[in-house]
Queue: 4 jobs
Job 1
Amino acid sequence: MIPAATVPLHTAPLPAAPPPALPLQPVRWQQLWREAVRDPGELLAMLGLEALANRVSAEADAQFPLRVPRGFVARMRHGDARDPLLRQVLPLDEEMRAAPGFSLDAVGDGAARAGAGVLQKYRGRALLVTTGSCAVNCRYCFRRHFPYAEETAARDGWREAVQAIRADTGIDEVILSGGDPLSLATSRLAELTAALAGIGHLKRLRIHTRLPVVLPERVDAPLLQWLAELPWPVAVVIHANHANEFDASVDSALAGLRDAGARLLNQAVLLRGVNDSVEALADLGERGFAAGVLPYYLHQLDRVAGAAHFEVPDQQAKALHAALAARTSGYLLPRLVREVAGDPGKRPL
Ligand SMILES: *Cc1c(COP(=O)(O)O)cnc(C)c1O
Ligand code: SF4
């Protein structure tokens, strides 16, 4: 900050070209967010995959639009129609095929969702739906049918959500989720944690986010400063599904988070054509560990309409998990789980 009062105005030389005030400069990550690729044709052209255009579904794209930051596209392999990162974001014809058992509300959130954007399914943990926004639209996501625009905890300046958490002394952990909580401006996050800081029964804060992976520029100095000053131990659960999602920019974002005191965990979804091999899962665990991240969960897909082509049958999932256990370090083995509505926690397979 410049202490303006110490410079007598009448003697101060006029600067030839005054630098623009900081708040007027677009924040870099927000700029990169706005510049995300949204046109399937453009994405395919960037990758030399124009021939794939006939498998793209305009209808699926209209339902849940393609959105992918350019830095993430840069990690896709040029000319590879089976690239595991591309498959996670490209709207394909398969999504429009009806599949029995795949529904709009696969995990029962419609019923569990309280008005304040607070979800409490499990003992001790309150999950805040902080926002409906994400920097990337993942084709397998339950969010494709729930934009959550009006139901977020941020809606009324966090008041109702904070009140609910304060009133329930059984809650010791607050989980920021969404959408992607780091898609909110750091100042909004700081508003929330300032309001939570006075609640004596809170012991931990957890953040579930894909942004350090898909838009690592989000992990900027103000975010790290906010994190470092939080009064609780913090876990950041990143969502990476494939080793290729990591690069130097992701490594440096993750190093920043660790330096700010966060414990890093990874949660992946088992996805056909993305990570449904022992090699892919072992590589993911090892690559994550190299970046300071321990595996946490490997989720069986939520059976959400449009995602059936990603499903790995339970038998195969269990066999993959057993084969992974036989070849990797114990601490690099994620827990294979599924979310079942009404259960007291994630259900092990
Ligand atoms: C998954 C989930 C949690 C976190 O469960 P953990 O097993 O502690 O990771 C908490 N609340 C809700 C509503 C969830 O869906
Ligand atoms: S909530 Fe997670 S999986 Fe769903 S679109 Fe956002 S980043 Fe992707």
Note: Strands lie at 118-119, 125-129, 173-177, 204-209, 234-238, 263-269, 294-299, 335-338, 347-348.
Job 2
Amino acid sequence: MRTSLFSRRTIRQGAVLAVGSAKIKLLLACCILFTLIALSGRTTSFMGWKQYAGSLPRSSLPRKGYTLLINTWKRNDLLKQSISHYASCPGLDSIHIVWSEPDPPSESLINFLNHVIKLNSKHHREIVLKFDINKEDSLNNRFKEIKDLKSDVVFSIDDDIIFPCTTVEFAFSVWQSAPDTMVGFVPRIHWIDKSNGNQDKYTYSGWWSVWWTGTYSMILSKAAFFHKKYLSMYTNEMPSSIREYVTKNRNCEDIAMSFLVANATGAPPIWVKGSIFEIGSTGISSLGGHHEKRTQCVNWFAAEYGRMPLVSTSVKAVDSRCSWFW
Ligand SMILES: *[C@@H]1O[C@H](CO)[C@@H](O)[C@H](O)[C@H]1NC(C)=O
């Protein structure tokens, strides 16, 4: 009996090795897991997980909330949609809209937004709405220092992506346990480019690479929590050459922020699992040549810092109320 069990295990191990990928192993494990879940449907409802998923107990809500820092450009419909959604999230303190269009926001847009905020905010909490109007159209605008900010942390977001409030609040709680760290939903990775034997060249990689390896070193500011001190550091302490590079190339402000936080903390960011709903159509990342430009940014910033501050990790924060299996 023992022998047969042993040999069966060796065969299975051999098969997995032949396939040779941890990811495939994971997929297999998931299949087995789903079968188990299907079989044990009764057990899970008995344990009452559903009952708790999605609603944090009142007492665990912090008194201080977060500020929504939303970047928008000539897409008022998307702005209206996302603001009316986020206004309903319980931890939201205030909303700052980064406005870089030549014309100031119209009276009707401001009225509409104030109206939906009042309508959707929970328990009639007062949410402050502010426009940060910029004369110059630069990607650095989104990281300008905000004076008199009620909260310590901003949730930086693009106008075309929406997360459910439970997901946002979960990421917020992750940030609270690591307030110096960047915490968010869109991870990216840099690799050392060994193709020409040069150890100091890096490549920027997107979602597939992160998914395949489970490793990342950046969290993009299109959906991330970070401490407000990084806004003032970005504007006042980061080398101005980096800001100039961002303005000139109209790209990579998010990578610059990742470098800044990594240099300050010496630690990796934290990736939070969450479902993303994209409400817009195409963004900058679907334009051609995007990858090469991003790779250039990574190399240029690393040279500017005199070293590579980004730290890789494979930690992923998951809401344990929503995970099926311990
Ligand atoms: C990186 O961090 C160090 C130590 O905190 C600091 O002295 C240095 O100015 C930072 N580098 C840049 C380029 O911001």
Note: Residues 238-239, 263-264, 305 surround 2-acetamido-2-deoxy-beta-D-glucopyranose (CB under 6 Å).
Job 3
Amino acid sequence: MLHKCGGAPLAIITMASLLVGRPVEFWSKVYNSIGFGNEDNKDVNNTRKILLFSYYDLPCYLRTCLLYMSIYPEEHLIEKDSLIWKWVAEGFIHEEAGVGLYEIGERYFNELINKSMIQPVDSHPYDRTITGYYDIITGCRIHDMVLDMICRLAKQENFVTALYNNEQQAYTVHHNVRRLAVGDKNCLANTCMPQVRSFNVLSSDVKLPSLSCFQVLRVLALEGDTSSEHDTTCLEHLGKLVHLRYLGLRNINISELPKEIGDLKFLQMLEMKDCNKLLKLPQSIGQLSQLKCLRVYADRFSMLQCLEDTALDWIRNLTSLEELCLLNVSESSNFVNDLGKLTELRKLCIVSLRLKSASLIKDWEESLDKLQKIQVIDIGWFIYKEEGDATYCREGYAPPRQLRVLHMQYKQPGLPIKISPSLQPNLSHLSLQVNALDVEIFGRFPELVTLQLDVNTYHYDVTGAPGAFPKLRAFKTDGTPRFLGVMPNLEYLEFVVSIMDLNTKPDFGSLVNLPMLQRVVILVWYNFNEFDSEEAKDVVREAIFSGPSGFTFELKGWQC
Ligand SMILES: *[C@@H]1O[C@H](CO)[C@@H](O)[C@H](O)[C@H]1NC(C)=O
Ligand SMILES: *[C@@H]1O[C@H](CO)[C@@H](O)[C@H](O)[C@H]1NC(C)=O
Ligand SMILES: *[C@@H]1O[C@H](CO)[C@@H](O)[C@H](O)[C@H]1NC(C)=O
Ligand SMILES: *[C@@H]1O[C@H](CO)[C@@H](O)[C@H](O)[C@H]1NC(C)=O
Ligand SMILES: *[C@@H]1O[C@H](CO)[C@@H](O)[C@H](O)[C@H]1NC(C)=O
Ligand SMILES: *[C@@H]1O[C@H](CO)[C@@H](O)[C@H](O)[C@H]1NC(C)=O
């Protein structure tokens, strides 16, 4: 079999995924079906044959989902969530009682990874900071040869038509195209496409046709990569796309969505990313009773203007929502109360949540209590302030058992949250503000992979019984911890060292308890009235060299 693969890694991996767990008769069948070629480029040809064999070995539903991925160009980082919602919109996911469509789609995605048809990508693959240690797979890539294969097949079957280079500019789109993907500087301005059910634009330079020329569109993705001239005019006639399930807008220069969006009765996914001029969302979104995913977010947060507060009253209507991501929510809306009505929520992300009274915090906790399916809670900035002496005596919110990710950065410490290894056994990513005395408990979460703790004191001890922190790979904190117990799998560590005079040397001896440590980032706080950042870093560098070794480190200066 190895010989058949001609040493080509992709062929070997694909072959292995094809054969694992199959009876020997199947092996001979594969062996006999893949012939040796005598051509010069026989490895390429053989790899192609192996890939094709693996493709036809997939169940039918997976073949469809894989073929659909020919809408993406080479080297493209495909976002998992967006892909799965497109599959849902296209009707590729077969319903099963009691399981959400997204979850079934996620299973398909994992099966394609398992068959080596797509390559998984972790979040933030390029900067291995703490977020790089999420073992949550957020995307994938397709090997060029797999892409080449599915593009040929998709073209043969008139399944997808992809226009990804300028040579095809003059291409006249056939009237029977069913799914169209466009990049580069193609011009479709005067094209009419009554049969197209999926229209994906992955460049900001494409000249778009009028939406009035589509009649059966289910997926509309204007997902250009840079800020574009695409503005409100490209959304004219949006309300006529009554079959639309998926609407994805990126880098579109709009301040408002057309209110006709309320007419899209079947819409399931609405995403607006990096639409930096966006000021408000129309009330009519409240009519989208099928909406399962609403995301308004940005990679470049600093460029954003604020969404108006009062614009969120409609959210209580969206009772089918499974995922909600918003930028900035503040107390004047009824948001925290309405949140409790969204009982299907699996994932809640808010960049900045501002609650100014004790009673609102109580409402917030009561609402969260009603979200019994929630798995991810990610609040970037949780800002709260209590009025006068009216301290509301809180029990603390206890998240449900299936919680996997909890990020809550409070501006002020002290808001309790009830978590424990027995209450939330699957918790794998945690970011919280805590009391130094409570740090020990985190060693007992069996699935914890990343941990970020803001602690109320500079120097504190991280202890842990034998077997503590079994899976922890990344730890970040705003203090100077001393590791008294072993963290057997920790690879990444980020902490703060404060240098107030040049004669007091920090002691990094306890890092010896981190046997797998690979990378350390230290934020050096220094007294800038007395000396400069380089002098402070020298002190830290010297201390590191005289301590345990085996890892790379990076120092960042910070005035105080
Ligand atoms: C590869 O296969 C194709 C057709 O399947 C054939 O035409 C070609 O000669 C083969 N060899 C090379 C080197 O491409
Ligand atoms: C992947 O394949 C292996 C071997 O067939 C199987 O044991 C495993 O359960 C599969 N995992 C998923 C997520 O499908
Ligand atoms: C965005 O639209 C505004 C007015 O609608 C215009 O002034 C501005 O130049 C546009 N920006 C880009 C990048 O096209
Ligand atoms: C909420 O839903 C009700 C009933 O479907 C509808 O009458 C109302 O207009 C909706 N509210 C908003 C703000 O869209
Ligand atoms: C959130 O909105 C409030 C009120 O509109 C504004 O004052 C605040 O600066 C915004 N916060 C962020 C982080 O954008
Ligand atoms: C924890 O995760 C496992 C594997 O995904 C799952 O089978 C189990 O039901 C989860 N436990 C809880 C309490 O959600």
Note: The radius of gyration is 27 Å.
Job 4
Amino acid sequence: MYKEMGISEEVVRFGEEIADSLKERFQKIDETAEYNQMKVVHAMQVNHVSEACLYPSTGYGYNDIGRDTLEKVFADTFHTEDALVRPLIACGTHALGIALAGNLRPGDELLSPVGKPYDTLEEVIGIRESRGSLAEYGIRYRQVDLLPDESFDWEGIRQAINEKTKLVTIQRSKGYQTRHTLSVAEIGELIAFVKSIRSDIICMVDNCYGEFTERLEPTDVGADLMVGSLIKNPGGGLAPIGGYIVGKKEYVGNAAFRLTTPGLGKEVGASLGTNAPFYQGFFMSPTVTASSLKSAIFAANIYEKLGFAVVPNGTEERHDIIQAVTFGKPEGVIAFCQGIQAAAPVDSYVTPEPWAMPGYDSDVIMAAGAFVQGSSIELSADGPIKPPYAVYFQGGLTWQHGKLGILMSLQKVLDAGLVEL
Ligand SMILES: *Cc1c(COP(=O)(O)O)cnc(C)c1O
């Protein structure tokens, strides 16, 4: 079949050798998935998820039993008091935006103790001037960068915290930066430190790409709020839209008053037809995340063996599903992305090319042949065409498909004359 798909025998053989060497690693990932599968099913059972929960609601959405029960399922899975899980949340940035805007007031300070946040949040916060940003409402922002060895700058953080500090935002995943992704244990240490200075500071974690990669989540180690996107891990590839916010009841409620309006909060917001795919996607999420982790580890080991720099490396523990591969030249990034596209179930026949996308300071190439537009729990890759010419790869709803994508990328990189096997 691989031959029929356009992958040569030498690529298949090279891939098989690597895959064989990863069996023990994959078994550990399956054990984590098994644990997390129990967490989700248990939460569904104790909350009496019933057939009626899967039906759509319309209009105001009062008494939407499916929506309200789903929020209890999220809250119980992540061990929090409350949850907001809605199709009205357009994406991860929107979820983070309302969690921030709902909980900050004029005069408050927001602190990021882990360096610069994800690109799209720069405009939410007002780091880059933007209409409607938190800065326009008189909310100040402070940032403490990680130290050169990527550890926390404890002294810097202590000095940055003052009586105005209201909320600390901690991004788990590296996003498009070169730092490592924070483990849940590291996040726990950081939260404990912040709380030791002032226990009333709200600690929020941007959990994008991190859900179910470990047994514990940031809410198990003290996070007051945790936020993510449903077209990443916790949507399991089935959620067609949406975001979630879980945490302390008061803070989740504040975010809901921003999502809808003061007074209405969580009471309104019809789920339309999203209840069924939200439940089923959350149910699938632990194993889908495991498939993405396996695909990322396979990619790391393939490209590491060929001499490219990979982050994380082939043997490191994983705390999210993102894999970076540095090619050092544009042709590598382009060939890799074209391979990922050629392996897609949707739009496999198109060839992605770099272009000047709005919001970026260089040309960018993106490969996405997804069932849900832009979904990055599905097999996808992208990279800016600028030094160090790194590509960011993520997803794979099934390990078998992730493997195909990586083999196809390798075939294209090989065909472009960039490596020899
Ligand atoms: C994806 C992501 C977001 C939100 O992005 P959207 O594209 O708006 O869903 C925020 N933070 C991190 C770290 C992310 O990976």
Note: Residues 33 and 287 are 6 Å apart (CA to CA).
